[in-house]
Amino acid sequence: MSRPGLGPPSRIEAAIERAMRRDQISRRAFLGRAGRGGVALGAMMTLPGLLAACTPGSESASLEWANWPGYIDIDEEGNPSPTPYPTINAFIEETGIQVNYTEAITDNEDFFGQIQPDLASGNPTGWDVITPSDWMVGRLIGLDYLEELDLTQIPNLEANAADYARGQSFDPNNAHSVWWQGGITGIAYDPTLTGRELTSFDDLLNPEFAGSVGLFKEMRDTFPLTLLSIGVIPTEATIADVEEAQQKLLGPAEAGQFRGFYGNEYYDELAAGNLVASMAWSGDITQMALYDNANVQFVIPDTGGIRWNDNLVIPNLAANPSGAHQLMNYWYDPVPATILSEYIGYFTPVADVPDRIRQDAEAARDAGDTETADLLDAIAPTVAPSPEQLANSYEDKPLDEEEEQVWNELFLEVRGA
Amino acid sequence: MTTDRRRWVPYALLAPGAIWLVLFFALPMAFMLLVSLQQGSLSQGYELTWNFAIYPEVLGQYWELMLRSVVFAFLTTLITLLIGYPMAYTIAFRGGRFKNALLLIVVMPFFVSFVIRTLNWKMILADNGLLFGTLKDLGLLDPSFQFLATPASVIFGMTYNFLPFMILPLYVALEKIDRRLIEAATDLYASRVQAFWRITFVLSLPGVIAGSLLTFIPAVGDFINADIIGGGNRDVIMIGNVIQFQFFTANDYPTAAALGFILIIGVMALVIAYTRAVGAEKLTEG
Asked: How far is CA A236 from CA A99, A165, A181, A224, in A?
């Protein structure tokens, strides 16, 4: 779903600027805490460290983690040792586990295609932790491709997880997965171009915006939002419902309502004003407002938005499951979770993070750095869903293969094939 | 002994080419054909069921997109030829000691990744971008004018990206023309125009054919330009986009393979018809 992938050049420039500015914050925040948290880190080091040293599997002291691009904090120097990622370095220091962090996932289906042959034939995939999206986790559990989690090794989950991040429909008791980060799919628009406020999905289909509206090119992004607009809860959608949703899009599509079908590149089109309105991912529009186009607004349509998240899971026969559990536990520690959120701005699974970001803002303001303080204050409310957002957003439907095929065929027709 | 050897020498000489063809063309083609005749799903696995019915099925479903791809590729080839010929001609005949530098300039954009170049055009051609934004500000263009996400923009993108493939073979063909033939023609009272069409152009035909093929064939299967410059608009997506979707998103390998197979056979048929029509055999024999 929302992929903070490598964007086109205009975005690259913006990203560089953003990274420079963000690094200042995160680095400052990180250094500030390193002093404060020193004792806690030291204490944590002893027990799990000793346990890990005693565990038979612990000779495998490296950990292979596959994640999406742009989904972690990066140090401004670019190349500190052993990795460019301050939070991961802190984990390595704390546990002695060498994390090999790879941005190996750019698409759920592509990545599934890579690991599926090994998993199907009972071979290790070479990964200890992977980060698939919600519906993909559902599929992996269904195929029995994931190791079961030992939640006693992830005490921080019970202690610190936000309510919305506990137990998803595809994995109610976190038996196989824990939240990494998440967001909401809704709509975004530029009021200076639309000339009015948009509140509903049907606004995207209004002929007054003909040729200037963007949809997502992934069926899994576009259909569920459309289903909600015809009053169908996506998880309960039947093929007939999807056919109705397709018909709803097909007419406007044929009349040239949509400028195009986009992945991450909708961001530039929207920021540049080529699109006046588009389907959008919440985290992106926060960033857009801060760095690229302050006019653009994100709204959850009155008929509802789609909640999505990516998850940490352990594929079968992982070489270092104990390290994988330690990594999961680490990310439910509010300290690294806050650093991460200040940097990437998606929904965090850790309850305390928004408050901690506000505290950091406060600290920055006290230190006279109003720019950083304003930035952090702007980020704080966006890293967790508000109660209204939660009430008006729904989960995606995990599709079986036949449904997926039919939905894809129907969607391909909307795209013009 | 000698007669024996004579018999197999031609085959031995053919062997490298033949092995190359088998390994990199015939085998993949056969493999693709077999994949297209399978049925099943990703989790259950695909099984070969000789499902030939997929061919009429995908042809019926996607013939319009195939036709559009051929039309887009044809227009791209035509425009690259119209732009590329004068450029290649100028470099070959008027380039003098700057020939190599000029050729380098033609190839220079290739030092940058295909995708990055295409993305840059998207920035330049954005509705309120460098080019049209300026023209709109100057009041020379209607504020609602839009070039991106139109068929013309996709053909533009492909023309830009494939132009060097046209220019280089044209240059090679033009460069080796014996200038004395043109002198002889003018000595025999041919006008410059007549000399061009009867001598230069005819002798450059192998370059025209090679350049057209090098442009047309990749252009038919292109999906990057339709995706990036065309923004995946309904009126611009090409058959390459569908193959990409079926293969990577829908994991429907048989459909993707069937489309790929039809595309290759179709392109081969068009190429044979084209070379027949312009008489490539005769040209390359001499």
From this structure: 40, 22, 25, 11
pTM of the model: 0.78
Greatest Cα-to-Cα distance within chain A, rounded to the nearest angstrom: 67
- What residues form DSSP beta bridges with A311? A179
* Residues facing residue A101 across a β-bridge: A65
- Element of type H or E holding A46: helix A38-54
Angle between helices A38-54 and A86-95 (to 10 degrees): 50
Q: How many CB atoms neighbour CB B34 within 10 A? A: 14
Encode pLDDT of B181-212 as tens digits.
999 999 999 999 999 999 999 999 999 999 99
Locate the chain A residue with the closest alpha carbon to B236.
A416
Structure tokens at A19: 């990274």
- Among A107, A143, A259, beta carbon nearest to B149: A259
Tokens of A366: 């006290």
Residue at B132: amino acid letter: F
Structure tokens at A352: 């305390």
Is residue A8 predicted with pLDDT exceeding 80? no
| A261 sits in which H/E element | strand A258-262
Asked if the bond preceding B218 is cis, omega within 30° of 0, the reply is: no
Note the ipTM here. Answer: 0.80
pLDDT band at A22 (very low <50, low <70, confident <90, very high): very low
Q: How far is CA A268 from CA A8, A138, A306, B209, B231, in A?
A: 8, 32, 22, 40, 11
CA–CA dist B253, A111 (Å, integer): 16
Length of chain A: 417
Token pair of A413, please? 């027709």
Interface of A with B (CB under 8 A): 8-10, 107, 109-110, 112-113, 116, 120, 143, 211, 214, 217-219, 253-254, 256, 258-262, 265, 269, 272-274, 401, 404-405, 408, 412, 415-417
